[in-house]
Design a protein that fits this description.
The protein is an alpha/beta fold and 160 residues long. The chain has a single domain, classed as Rossmann fold. It has six helices and five strands. A five-stranded parallel beta sheet has the order 2-3-1-4-5, with helices on both faces. The longest helix has 21 residues.
């Protein structure tokens, strides 16, 4: 059986990555693997000071699972932001070394929409109607420090 491809969903907090991944999955039949879903399922809202360490382990596990699925002919969507250019480069190399096609879809939204979506998500999380991270000032600051928007040459599909 021929390898299926892997789609990396890149974008900031509350930009619509999970909604986009869900729609893409419905349209293509690909399986979505979400680091946030695993983290929230295991640790809830707070994995403490080891959050980044645990998240790295979850992502490594999901990369291996993505390889298995792609080799079985199942398309895969990785929904976890890919904030850093180095992470995007390493992930493309990881799949490329295994003969698996990899695309980067970048979701970009304007600042006003971003702030509105954060408020909407936080309200839904507080009301218990959404299983997502509450975006406080600390998480917002972390995102702003770490996010490196992809350059044109990195992006296969722009979503605006």
């Amino acid at each position: 059986m021929e390898n299926a491809g892997v789609t990396l969903i890149c974008g900031g907090l509350c930009c619509g990555k999970t909604t986009y991944a869900r729609r893409l999955s419905e349209r293509t039949g690909a399986v979505t693997l979400s680091a946030d879903e695993v983290m929230l399922s295991v640790f809830g809202q707070d994995a403490g000071e080891r959050h980044d360490e645990y998240a790295a382990g979850v992502k490594n596990y999901l990369l291996g699972l993505a390889v298995q699925l792609a080799r079985a002919g199942v398309g895969v969507i990785l929904d976890w932001g890919f904030w850093a250019a180095e992470e995007r480069r390493r992930t493309r190399e990881f799949f490329g070394a295994r003969g698996i096609i990899c695309e980067l879809h970048y979701i970009d939204i304007d600042g006003e929409t971003w702030h509105r979506r954060i408020a909407e998500r936080n309200a839904a999380v507080a009301a218990g109607t959404a299983e997502a991270y509450f975006v406080d000032e600390g998480l917002t600051a972390k995102f702003l420090r770490r996010f490196e928007a992809p350059q044109d040459g990195e992006v296969d599909v722009f979503v605006r």
